[in-house]
Specification:
Layout lengths: L6 H5 L13 H20 L8 H4 L17 H8 L1 H4 L17 H4 L2 H10 L1 E7 L2 E7 L8 H11 L12 H10 L9 H5 L3
Antiparallel strand pairs: 1-2
C-alpha cells in the first residue's frame, strides 16, 4: 500500500535532529584538555601531606628560595583560629564566648595567659564580671610556641588592650612545666591558682 503525501505535508521541513555529534568539536577538545591537565596534576601532586599541614605551616616552612624568615603574624593566626568565637572586634559573644577586649585574663600575667591556649578551658570562667560556661579548644598540638606567643601578643595589643608582648620563651616554659597535663583547665577553679 502506497502513502501519498499531500501538498501540505510536502511543504513541511524535516524535524531537526542533533546528528551523530551533538557537541561542537571545540567543546569536546576543551573537555579533553581539562581531563588531560587533571591527570597530569594528580600524577605530579604530593599527596602524602598531613591533613593539618595547611593550618600549621609557618613562614619558616615556606619553600621560597632566598626568602627571609619574617616574624610570625599573630593577627593571621587569630583570624584563622580564634575569630569565630572571640569575633574580629575581640568582644566575643555575650553569654557564649568571653571577650578578649579588656579581659583581666588577657591583660594579666603573660605566663598564666599562656596556659589557656596550650591546654584549653572547660567549665565556668569569669570575665569582666560575667560568667561563661563553655569550652576553649587545646592548641598545644596545633600551634608552635612562637605561634602561640604571636597570637597572645596580638590580643594583648588590640581593641584597646595595652599589655606587654608574650615571648616564645614564656610559652616554651609553660609548655615544659605542664607537659603531663592531659585535660583542659577547669575554668576559674584551676586558672585562679596559677
Amino acid at each position: 500500500m502506497r502513502h501519498n503525501k499531500s501538498d501540505s505535508q510536502l511543504r513541511e521541513l524535516p524535524d531537526p535532529d542533533e546528528s551523530p555529534n551533538p557537541l561542537p568539536w571545540y567543546i569536546i577538545m576543551a573537555m579533553g584538555a581539562l581531563f588531560m591537565w587533571g591527570l597530569f596534576y594528580i600524577s605530579h601532586a604530593y599527596m602524602g601531606a598531613d591533613s593539618f599541614e595547611g593550618d600549621t605551616r609557618t613562614v619558616e616552612m615556606a619553600p621560597i628560595a632566598g626568602a627571609t624568615v619574617a616574624a610570625i603574624d599573630g593577627g593571621e593566626i587569630f583570624q584563622g583560629k580564634c575569630v569565630a568565637c572571640h569575633q574580629a572586634n575581640g568582644a566575643g559573644l555575650p553569654g557564649v564566648f568571653p571577650p578578649l577586649a579588656g579581659s583581666e585574663w588577657v591583660l594579666g600575667d603573660a605566663e598564666r595567659l599562656a596556659h589557656i591556649p596550650l591546654h584549653g578551658i572547660q567549665g565556668k570562667l569569669s570575665v569582666k564580671g560575667a560568667t561563661y560556661n563553655g569550652m576553649m579548644p587545646v592548641f598545644a598540638d596545633l600551634l608552635t610556641d612562637g605561634e602561640i606567643a604571636a597570637v597572645l601578643t596580638y590580643v594583648r595589643s588590640q581593641w584597646g588592650n595595652n599589655a606587654s608582648a608574650v615571648t616564645e620563651e614564656t610559652v616554651k616554659k609553660v609548655r615544659q612545666a605542664t607537659k603531663d597535663k592531659t585535660t583542659p583547665y577547669n575554668g576559674d577553679e584551676e586558672l585562679s591558682k596559677l
